[in-house]
Specification:
This protein is about 35% helix and about 20% strand. By secondary structure, it is an alpha/beta fold. The structure holds flavin mononucleotide (FMN).
Length: about 325
């Protein structure tokens, strides 16, 4: 299906896989891009960022790959942001208020489209004013860190009425029916995180993936500020079971992670994602999950998941 998003990005499916720290490495971003959607890397991961860009683009077979950045950390990582703007199809920022200076910086570094994930109408308007090419509206149903307080459909509706750039809807979308509904409601594409954790190419820890498969519905998730170590005062949605396990845990260190040469303790209530390279009490780590988790019932190759998610589109 062609939309303003597919025409702009140059992909064949109106779908963006969310950048997910500790989950979306080059294997996932490349496979999603090869399947016709927009595959996203996250600025942080085990290997150097440039190596991950090279590997994701190599795996993408000409498909569109981007990289997501956090506005509050980007001043320490401007070189990577500029490299991504020069080498990838999309650079994107999350968490802070849209910043025209950062958009201009990407424009002077390369040809990448620039996007911003927002949680409010005001920030969507600011993204458009800052010169962004598209905006992602994140509803409160989303897994991971949650910027706003409004439900996805309400925010999408408000933003669609007021901005002219393509709007990508995010939060709690994990089934083909909800993909079709979001596009019918005026989204130019959907952005999906949680469902892509349960793919062969995901870097999520197997025990984390099992917990996602076991969750029955959005009622098994909770919006909290508990996993604050490393990122305080930032609401995030996780599995309720993970919050309960972290609360019941009595020590200071729940696990150990990082590259083989530099293993580091993962503190109780750390914001770190339970990825494959972590060992320890995975059940008591921040098991981020969106409210669509009940639709995540099996582990698929990423390309099959893309095909399944778009299967109800005309
Ligand atoms: C495990 C996990 C990690 C995430 N990490 C990031 C990240 O690094 N950068 C980012 O912009 N968004 C991140 N998000 C949020 C996504 O961008 C997106 O808003 C969310 O996944 C959409 O909701 P869904 O998970 O219900 O599909 C993360 C989400 C999850 C589930």
């Amino acid at each position: 299906m062609q939309t303003a998003f597919t025409r702009l990005v140059g992909c064949t499916q109106p779908l963006q896989q969310a950048p997910m720290g500790g989950v979306s490495g080059p294997e996932l971003a490349g496979a999603v891009a090869r399947a016709g959607a927009l595959g996203m890397l996250c600025e942080f991961d085990l290997e150097p960022a440039e190596e991950r860009m090279t590997n994701a683009v190599a795996g993408a077979g000409g498909g569109a790959v981007g990289m997501g950045f956090f506005g509050h950390a980007i001043q320490d990582d401007l070189g990577t942001f500029e490299t991504a703007a020069a080498r990838l199809r999309v650079v994107e920022v999350f968490w802070t208020t849209p910043d025209p200076a950062l958009v201009a910086r990407a424009r002077s570094a390369g040809e990448a489209l620039v996007a911003w994930q927002v949680g409010s109408l005001d920030d969507a308007l600011a993204a458009q004013d800052a010169g962004c090419d598209f905006v992602i509206t994140q509803g409160v149903e989303a897994g991971g860190h949650v910027r706003g307080t409004q439900p996805r459909d309400e925010l999408l509706h408000e933003v669609r009425e007021r901005v002219s750039i393509p709007v990508v809807a995010a939060g709690g979308i994990a089934a083909p029916e909800s993909v079709a509904a979001a596009l019918s409601a005026g989204a130019a594409a959907v952005r999906i995180g949680t469902a892509f954790i349960a793919t062969h190419e995901s870097r999520g820890h197997p025990a984390y993936i099992e917990a996602l498969l076991a969750a029955q519905s959005g009622d098994d998730t909770v919006l909290t500020t508990a996993f604050a170590v490393g990122w305080p005062d930032a609401p995030h949605r996780v599995l309720k079971s993970a919050l309960a396990a972290a609360e019941a845990f009595t020590g200071d260190v729940v696990a150990e992670g990082g590259p083989p040469a530099a293993r580091r303790p993962v503190l109780r209530f750390s914001s770190a994602t339970p990825s494959r390279h972590v060992e320890g009490r995975i059940d008591a780590m921040a098991q981020y999950a969106g409210m669509g988790v009940g639709s995540v019932t099996r582990v698929l190759p990423a390309a099959d998941l893309v095909a399944k998610l778009v299967s109800h589109l005309a």
